[in-house]
Amino acid sequence: MYLVALLCRALGVVRSSFYAWLDAEEARQARMRADDALAHEITVIHLASKGAYRVPQMHAELRRMGGRVNRKRVALVMRQHGIAGVTRRRRRSLTRSDKQMRPAPDPTALSRTRSAWSLT
Questions:
Q1: Who's near 33: CB < 8 A, 6+ residues apart?
Q2: Which of 33, 43, 73, 96 has the fewest CB within 10 Å, making it most exposed?
C-alpha cells in the first residue's frame, strides 16, 4: 500500500486512477481476446473474397453473418492486423479523344491590335 502511494506520487498519478486501471485489466484482456476472434473472422472472409473486401464490404459481410460489430472497430482491427482490400476496377476515361480532329481554337487568344490596348 505504501509502495503504491510512493509510486503514484513519483509518477504524478492519482491513486484512485491506478486502482481503476488495475481493476480494468480483466476487461482489457477480454477486449483483446474479442479483437483476436474478430481478426480471425475477418481473415477468413478476406481470404474467401480473394483480398477484395475493404472495410465497408467487410462490415456488411460480418453483419450478414449475424455479428454485431461497429464499422470503426472493423477498420481498427483490419489496420492493426495489416488486412487491406484492393480495388479491382480499372480506371477508365469518360471521354475519348479523336486523334484525327484538329484542336479547337483557343478562345483567349483573340487577335487584338496594339492600338486597342494603348491608352492614348
A1: none
A2: 96
Q: CA–CA separation, 39 vs 76, rounded Å?
A: 10
d(CA 105, CA 54): 46
Euclidean distance between CA atoms 8 and 2, whole angstroms: 10
* Cα separation, 62 vs 69, whole angstroms: 8
Averaged in consecutive runs of 10 residues, what is the pLDDT profile of the chain (120 residues)? Answer: 84 88 92 94 91 90 89 93 82 77 73 54
Query: What angle, rounded to 10 degrees, do the helices at 15-23 and 2-11 form?
Result: 110
CA distance 101 to 15: 80
Residue with cell 498519478: 13
pTM (global) more than 0.85: no
